[in-house]
Each structure stands twice: as structure tokens, then as C-alpha cells.
Design goal:
This protein starts with 22 loop residues before the first helix and ends in an 8-residue tail after the last helix. With 396 residues, it is of the alpha/beta class.
Length: 396
């Protein structure tokens, strides 16, 4: 089989050749954004799910659809250690510059840029990582109080009024929202609430790990009334089969039924893993059809590739105590697990392990499905931990 023609695309945020099983969610966000533009009520959408389910790919596809419909968008990934104002300001500047080129929105677009100038200047002392070039002077009293909650409201309202004048909407696409500090999330929720009250067309489409709804709720108790939280999980059997088989079929290659069944079992329907197994199965096969023997060979190389990239990049960020905590979880199985059971296995008190657990949640490695429970945010990470730390893991 020609490796150059291999259609599969395992990678962080890399679009798969066949985006299967997500049509309903794509339509939901499209309808909501169109309603916002029309001045009708619609909730912002925050997709939640584990690593490897394709949230980033979905965000990018949703943005493409919005841009194709004439909506103005900005796209942000929230990294650890950066403030919301710092990551928002440069992208918002680009969106507002595009808006200000519209004849209908020109003046309000310029006013929104003046609001952005005041916003950046007013918050620079508190959020020193704000770096944005603004060609407009601030308008005194507009988004320049130096208080994020009030200034973000004024800024997004000004941006929304410019979008409304231009007959469009401003849709913010933000990935990895779980890394935004709760105080800053609270300001974002408040600003979106204000925009809804004023009927200005601003909407958030975000993505994050499963702890995000809890973070939003702690930030503002009314967040659940402003957002829909669709859970993005593994693909069902039909969609997983399509994601695997359709790209190959378009190139005249088929899978034996047993080969497909084995891949679906190995990957549990997770889109990233389907792409990894598909790639390695293609490379292992001499010709079509791809056989069960090809898949068995591919499972070895696919697992090794995941260990060296998808899993390893997360493992290498951990401290020794964090690794031991996750290894104890892995010993108990895929989870979720009671924190007390993890502590028992480590021969420690639950209270002494609290800081380690909190650090792992902050790093996006685990989450709490319910009080006292702990689960991995990365599918199959328990298997990886048993491979990478086969013995001696409980020792200090």
C-alpha cells in the first residue's frame, strides 16, 4: 500500500478525512449562531469531553460554517498560565478591524476599537501579559475602569453593537476553556449575560474538559441558564465504522469485517485513536483488503506511536508524586475511582493527597465526575501508566 496515499490524519486538531457522527451538533451551533444574528434568543454552546474526541476539530469546522454564513468570528486557544484578556484582545482586534471596514458598521466598529484600547490600557497593570497594538485612542469612560468584569461587559457590548449594525454577529470560538481562571470565567459569563440582555449579537462557542461545567457554575451560579453543555463522546459503532472505512473506500481500499471489528474494539470509538489505527493498518497492509493480521500488526505500532506522542507529552509534565497518584488510579482500572481507594493503595491519608489531586485537575489530567470520585481525562491512560511504570511505582 502506498504510504503517500494513506488518508488517515492522527494529530492534535488535525481534521479527519471523514468527520462522522457529529452532524447534529454542527447543526445545533449553526442554528444558534444564526438566531443570534437575527436578534433571537440562543444559548452559547460549550462542548465538553475527554481528550481525543475531536472537540478542536469540531470548533474549527463550526467556525468555517459561521464564516461561510457571513458571521464574524475569532478563534482562541486558552493556554495554561495566560490571562483571558491577553488571549482575547489580539483576536478581538482583528475581528473588529474587519467589521470596521463595513460601511454600515464603520463608526460603531471604530468605537469598539476605542473600547478595546481603553480595555487593554486599563487592565495592563493587573494583567501584564496583555500585548495588543491599537491604532485608536481610548474613549474616556469606555471599558477603561481597570476592572475586568465591568470592562469586558462594555467591550463586548460595543463589539456586538458594531456587529449588529453590520447585519452580522460576533462568534467567539475558544478552546481549552478549563484553563481560564474562575474569576476570569465569571467576568466572561457576566459579559455574555449583559449582551443577551441588551440583545446584541455576541455568542461563545467553547470547548473544554468535563470539569468545565462545574467551573462555570462556581464562577457564576446562573451559568447553566446561559449555556448548553453538549457532551462530545466516542463515536457510536456506525459512525466509527464510517470514520474508518469511508476514507479508504474513496481510494479503492476496503477492510475485512474482522479487521474493522478489531479496530473498533481497540479504539473504543475515540476519533483520535481511529485515525491512529487506520494509519498504521494502512501502512501494515500489502494490498486491499486490509486484514485482521494487518490490524494485529498495526496495533503494536499504533500503541507505540501513542505512547511516544499522545500519552507521553502529558506524562512528561507530571511531578513524581503526580505520576504515583495516576499509577495508583491505573492499578484500580479505567475508573472513575473513589479518592479514598487511591489513598489506600498509596498508604496515605486522603487529606495529604488533596494537593496532588488538585494539581492534576488543574493540569487537565483528571476530573471529578461526582464528589469524591476521580477519573482520567485521557482515554486509555490507565493502560499507558501500567506500561510506562510497570513496577516500583508506590515508592517515595
Amino acid at each position: 500500500m502506498d504510504p503517500i496515499r494513506n488518508p488517515y490524519a492522527p494529530g492534535a486538531g488535525t481534521p479527519p478525512p471523514e468527520l462522522a457522527g457529529r452532524d447534529e451538533l454542527l447543526r445545533t451551533v449553526d442554528v444558534a449562531s444564526q438566531r443570534v444574528r437575527a436578534g433571537r434568543h440562543a444559548k452559547s454552546v460549550l462542548m465538553i469531553g475527554l481528550r481525543g474526541v475531536g472537540k478542536t476539530v469540531l470548533l474549527d469546522r463550526m467556525r468555517d460554517i459561521a464564516e461561510g454564513a457571513g458571521l464574524h468570528t475569532l478563534r482562541i486557544e486558552a493556554p495554561e498560565g495566560r490571562s483571558l484578556p491577553a488571549i482575547l484582545a489580539p483576536q478581538l482586534r482583528q475581528a473588529l478591524l474587519r467589521l470596521s471596514r463595513s460601511e454600515q458598521a464603520r463608526e460603531l466598529g471604530k468605537r469598539a476599537l476605542r473600547a478595546l484600547a481603553g480595555f487593554a490600557r486599563g487592565l495592563k497593570l493587573k494583567y501584564a501579559d496583555i500585548e495588543v497594538g491599537i491604532d485608536f485612542d481610548p474613549e474616556p469612560g469606555l471599558a477603561d475602569n481597570g476592572d475586568l468584569e465591568h470592562d469586558l461587559q462594555a467591550l463586548l457590548e460595543a463589539a456586538g453593537r458594531a456587529a449588529k449594525a453590520g447585519g452580522t454577529a460576533l462568534i467567539m470560538f475558544i478552546d481549552e476553556l478549563q484553563y481560564v481562571q474562575e474569576e476570569q470565567l465569571a467576568s466572561l459569563v457576566t459579559a455574555l449575560h449583559r449582551c443577551a440582555q441588551q440583545q446584541v449579537p455576541v455568542m461563545l462557542v467553547g470547548a473544554g474538559l468535563p470539569q468545565l461545567p462545574g467551573q462555570m457554575g462556581r464562577a457564576k451560579s446562573y451559568a447553566e441558564r446561559l449555556f448548553d453543555f453538549p457532551f462530545v463522546g466516542p463515536l457510536d459503532a456506525e459512525a466509527a465504522r464510517a470514520a474508518l472505512e469511508v476514507p479508504a473506500a474513496e481510494l479503492g481500499v476496503v477492510f475485512e469485517p474482522g479487521a474493522t471489528a478489531r479496530i473498533l474494539d481497540q479504539t473504543q470509538g475515540y476519533p483520535y485513536f481511529l485515525q491512529e489505527w487506520g494509519k498504521h493498518a494502512w501502512d501494515a497492509a500489502d494490498d486491499s483488503p486490509i486484514t485482521l493480521a494487518d490490524v494485529e500488526a498495526a496495533s503494536v505500532t499504533a500503541t507505540a506511536a501513542l505512547d511516544e506522542s499522545f500519552f507521553r507529552v502529558r506524562f512528561d509534565r507530571l511531578t513524581p508524586s503526580e505520576k504515583r497518584y495516576l499509577r495508583a488510579m491505573a492499578e484500580l482500572g479505567p475508573g472513575p475511582h473513589r479518592s479514598g481507594d487511591v489513598a489506600t493503595l498509596l498508604e496515605r491519608k486522603v487529606t495529604t493527597l488533596g494537593p496532588t489531586r488538585s494539581q492534576l485537575i488543574a493540569k487537565g489530567m483528571i476530573w471529578s465526575p461526582s464528589h469524591g470520585d476521580t477519573a482520567f481525562t485521557v482515554p486509555m491512560f490507565d493502560r499507558f501508566m501500567r506500561r510506562i511504570m510497570p513496577q516500583g511505582w508506590t515508592l517515595d
